[in-house]
Amino acid sequence: MTDPIDSNRLRKTLALLQQATGGEELAALAAVRRILDAGGLSLSDLVPVNSIAGTRGDDRTSSPPPSSPFAFKEDFDDFMERKEPGYRARMAAEQAEIARQNAAFRQSVIAKYGSEAAALCPTPLEQAINDACKPLIRVRAGYPDDLDGCNPFLFGGLPARVVAVLKAAVPMPTTLQKAASEVAFWEERDHEIRSIMEGCPIEQRLSLACEARRQMVMDALQYDIRAVSAADAIFRVEFLLNSGTYPTEKELQPALDDLRALAAGEENRQAMVQNHSSATSSVSARRSEVIRLLSHPATATLADREIARQVGVSPQTVGNLRRKLATSG
């Protein structure tokens, strides 16, 4: 069974595809394909493949490109209207509500910082990360800026030098809760900046360095930081479930490893408790046997060493118990 299409996300990604260039175009096209794959569709279900922006080389055909930057989106809207009658009206209502919420959030951001300009000024955390990574920023005419050869907005995997600089600039969180708190900060900060810079085509608004930091902390939260309690394991799983996407097998594996490690630790703890209980019971039983022998007329006259040999305790233990019985008797 296929998952339903996230039509709102697909609309946004299609709009990005029309405005993207170079590597951004390839990344946006891959995102469109992932969304369609989840719904059991392909690009050919929307428009002819050769009408998609970015046809190159041997793939060129005589088919004309879209007549406007919005032609591809309009084709998609027509497709969805045929598939789900009333789609256009529903999307218009949803977009109006989103616009209302965005306007309200934008005003709250301005009120929080005092002005639009102040809202766009880096926070102390942003400034520390930007300053540390400034020597690694590479600006090339005609290409997106990158961070030591990597653009974290387009491709995963950060160069080792970037990772080292970011860790040195601000210590990484050491618990799942602290990592989740920092991830929430970056997502909120990104939302704030986008609300002020409305209308820009790029989806993310954090700097390259801050986006790299966000990805590092997210990876630590999802994969690297180990759970030390059942509450931690539950926290990690709940974070994945509340992330708005379906957790992948790779993302679920650390949670499974946590549970296995915690289960093994609990088994060891139970074994230690059981061994301690058995040892305690054994000592108590031997003590009771010594008292029984010392209390019975037929064996009370036996030497301490003999009773100790029979029961398996030290002669000193027998002597101590004999004196206590004599005192209490």
Summarize the model shown.
The chain has helices at residues 7-19, 23-38, 71-83, 87-113, 116-120, 124-133, 160-169, 176-196, 208-224, 230-241, 249-295, 304-311, 315-328; strands at 137-138, 146-147. It is an all-alpha fold and 329 residues long.
Overview features:
single chain, 329 residues, mainly alpha, 2 strands
Question: Could you explain how this protein is built, in words?
Answer:
Among the domains are: 1-85, no CATH class; 122-225, no CATH class. The chain contains 13 helices and two strands, in the order H-H-H-H-H-H-E-E-H-H-H-H-H-H-H. It has helices at residues 7-19, 23-38, 71-83, 87-113, 116-120, 124-133, 160-169, 176-196, 208-224, 230-241, 249-295, 304-311, 315-328; strands at 137-138, 146-147. A two-stranded antiparallel sheet has the order 1-2. Strand 1 and strand 2 form a beta hairpin. Helix 12 (304-311) packs across helix 13. The radius of gyration is 34 Å and the shape is elongated.
Spell the H/E element sequence: HHHHHHEEHHHHHHH
User: Judging from the principal axes of the Cα atoms, what is the shape?
Assistant: elongated
Q: What's the overall average pLDDT, rounded?
A: 78
- Point out poorly predicted stretches: 48-71
Fraction of residues in H or I helices: 55-70%
Radius of gyration based on Cα positions: 34 Å
Tell me the distance between the termini. Answer: 82 Å
The total of beta strands comes to 2
The main sheet orders its strands as 1-2
SS class: mainly alpha
Largest sheet: 2 strands, antiparallel
By DSSP (H or I, 4+ residues per run), the number of helices equals: 13
Quote the beta fraction.
under 5%
